[in-house]
Amino acid sequence: xxxxxxxxxxxxxxxxxxxxxxxxxxxxxxxxxxxxxxxxxxxxxxxxxxxxxxxxxxxxxxxxxxxxxxxxxxxxxxxxxxxxxxxxxxxxxxxxxxxxxxxxxxxxxxxxxxxxxxxxxxxxxxxxxxxxxxxxxxxxxxxxxxxxxxxxxxxxxxxxxxxxxxxxxxxxxxxxxxxxxxxxxxxxxxxxxxxxxxxxxxxxxxxxxxxxxxxxxxxxxxxxxxxxxxxxxxxxxxxxxxxxxxxxxxxxxxxxxxxxxxxxxxxxxxxxxxxxxxxxxxxxxxxxxxxxxxxxxxxxxxxxxxxxxxxxxxxxxxxxxxxxxxxxxxxxxxxxxxxxxxxxxxxxxxxxxxxxxxxxxxxxxxxxxxxxxxxxxxxxxxxxxxxxxxxxxxxxxxxxxxxxxxxxxxxxxxxxxxxxxxxxxxxxxxxxxxxxxxxxxxxxxxxxxxxxxxxxxxxxxxxxxxxxxxxxxxxxxxxxxxxxxxxxxxxxxxxxxxxxxxxxxxxxxxxxxxxxxxxxxxxxxxxxxxxxxxxxxxxxxxxxxxxxxxxxxxxxxxxxxxxxxxxxxxxxxxxxxxxxxxxx
Amino acid sequence: xxxxxxxxxxxxxxxxxxxxxxxxxxxxxxxxxxxxxxxxxxxxxxxxxxxxxxxxxxxxxxxxxxxxxxxxxxxxxxxxxxxxxxxxxxxxxxxxxxxxxxxxxxxxxxxxxxxxxxxxxxxxxxxxxxxxxxxxxxxxxxxxxxxxxxxxxxxxxxxxxxxxxxxxxxxxxxxxxxxxxxxxxxxxxxxxxxxxxxxxxxxxxxxxxxxxxxxxxxxxxxxxxx
Lengths: 584, 226
Prior knowledge:
With 584 residues, chain A is mainly α.
């Protein structure tokens, strides 16, 4: 009954495909696993640049207008001191790079490409060529974005939100081509994301292995499916917005310039109509990754599989009707503000369902605190803190006081760093053996996780305090404000923690490259996991499996099942006693 | 080396037109449990390329929604629309042009019928007619743009000019893209690519063409008529 390939006369998986040259294997590859690795390297490379920009911002806030170590040779005119315009550029590009070129490529690009075909039992994506194109268009977009640093006038400096008219008139920020390149790069990235999203959705709907019903799919595939739908529908709105912004800046149209009949608030609406689904694009794959890793290392089925899938659908749906909470102080009608407040608070319900289901999964489990599990647990804890501070901001009376302060900065870093980046680290440690065929070093993994976890909290938790104390976002020199001077010691403390947080990533880099070349060879299924990717060789060859794709008999989280002598029961393992056979 | 292992074919078996026999079924995509509870193959309801085109159109709808809503926000905020001392848009010519574009969609449906009936020559002629009507639409639009620019309506002359050229220009770029896609499909049809009944690439192209055509009356209504 299982689907046997009509062309099932392959000898081994390795002889299964054309031998292709170096370029087709490593550069212009159409293989979903190679494209996943390319996205991963793109994201990790950009993370270094984005992280260094963040440290520059932190240095400026702790010791304003002093030379930044190491920048003396680049900023020769000032001897390494960041000018206000360069400071604006640094925080703008930190956010832009981290959101669009680190988290999206790693979570949606790398793990979307890697997990979807392997976990649903497909040999590749539905459109392998489109997949390759999607990566190379994203890479082009990254090159365009980085080239902005080298044009006269510097890079975009209007914040990652690029509010008009600040961003619409070149004279206001003094950057001309930087902001133009920012627009062009995001336009190109929108095209890339659309190609990727269409590919993911088509693959998940049409390419599942026999027996892989929708509700037998691993939750990470569910999360990537929903993310792809959000990407598909949200990014075009940003694409239309940046196109209008670019026309305003270059062709002289007047979409966002009031002088010619335009409407600056229109940009905020377009941006946040995209921007709020975007934050769920960043967090949903991490939620899926946590839902995947917690059951494996608790040796228990996930608590409430259907509730997990439906709560992700609910979050995705609600993400379209809450965007106004980013604009409470833009002069919107209070009645409208009230309705956005209510819809925002409703999002807490599906998020809480997910959180309690993760706790329910851990409850009574035989928890193995391995490195992927630690990162997944950190995701759950940090997401709870970030989620709770989100409820504070959703409330309009509170938001009037804390809007545009470091409280907001603390919130976004708890959900995006504490949530998405810990999710990404968990995924890297968990799938590294399958992705590269080698195990990572456990000691270095612990040496990476614990300092990262500690210094993450020491960096971002005090931001809540200085935020409530009144420190605004995006200020160049906090000492210019008398009411902020008494809490400057917090800024110094945060910067020390941030520098140590940066240093804590060194074990990760060493671990990644050492394991890549010299790590212990990975067995087929190092974590005793149930899902389909662990039935393929490590690393999986072209077309993933030998002559037949696996057949699926059950859901993905049958750990410690009475049906099996071991504490796991792979999805592809046929039942020992057939219900029908026993009767006859 | 020869290719000894292939990804499963994506189409369900089709009767051969010459012999009427059904080839042995290839391994299908997708999956579910069969009637006996065993994991069983399941045929995809829509071909990959048609499904992908539907989602692509979904993304395009969001893109144009962004543009059209922005147009309406600027327009409703303006005290007088169209602003005084600005040229008026050519209603009549564009109205006729709308009918030309709508006609191309009808011809496209007819081309699909001819293809399904196995009449390759007729299908190719009808596809060429649809492409010709689309090309005519673009030419008339271009001519009108040249006249409007001569009358002094440029992209930088206030919200009126900016919205007009952005919206109509974006649609024109889409018609051009759809024409290129249509030309490729026409070549494939002429070479007999769809002769075995595997018309999914044609249906995808036709879907996108219908989308581009259906978009136009909305723009005509918003930008020209109201």
